[in-house]
Prior knowledge:
Blueprint: H1 6-13, H2 22-31, E1 40-47, E2 59-63, E3 74-77, H3 83-88, E4 93-95, H4 97-104, E5 112-115, H5 120-123, H6 127-130, H7 148-157, E6 159-163, E7 169-176, H8 181-197, E8 208-215, E9 221-223, H9 225-233
Parallel strand pairs: 3-4, 3-5
Antiparallel strand pairs: 1-7, 1-8, 2-6, 8-9
Helix pairs in contact: 2-8, 8-9
Amino acid sequence: MAKHGKKFTAAEAQVEARPYTLEEAIPLIQKVQYAKFDETVELAMRLGVDPKHADQMVRGTVVLPHGLGKSKRVLAIAGADKQKEASDAGADYVGGDELVEKILGGWVDFDAVVATPDMMRAVGRLGKVLGPRGLMPNPKTGTVTPNVAQAIKEIKAGKVEFRVDKTGIIHVPVGKMSFPTENLVANARALVDSVVRAKPPAAKGKYLKSVTVSSTMGPGVTVDTAHVDERGRR
Length: 234
């Protein structure tokens, strides 16, 4: 087990061994922060699903009402008839087959990828490059679409993707430590509500097993699952 420094231990000592509401947990992690940089605030949710079964996979997207504190660099791989639309919507890089070749050559200087359906034959070649980075366009998350303008605007506005990993956990950033507390709470609430709504019918028993909020360097704070689950069902 890794040894923690004095600052972490001091911060951890201020966190009681009990579940908090989101409205209590987020100001607490802001209060105990000690890092010299603007840390990312992240939510980790352990779900009562078995991701090895396709009918228990949990994935989706949510537009965080207050974004993530930085605008994502969006790449649009689009047919010729959609490229101007993508540029007008704010895509940072727009093109077709030439962008596919550039990425195959090692270029990955972007944060999100949107593609039009007619380009997916070419984009399919990028699976080994984009897949491990979580950047592969997918119709289920709205990143393969003829409506590239809407997809780009949503990403720029703070749309994030969530996906359960093989251990049944979802990790998603919800903002920066410097955000006003109420903005972090609203972002976290939007994320939890979306994950609750994405509960697969095949999932049995308790769905939200645990929820933890933490910062990059700070201790985790346990969130009351009954509180957030109840809110998400309303």
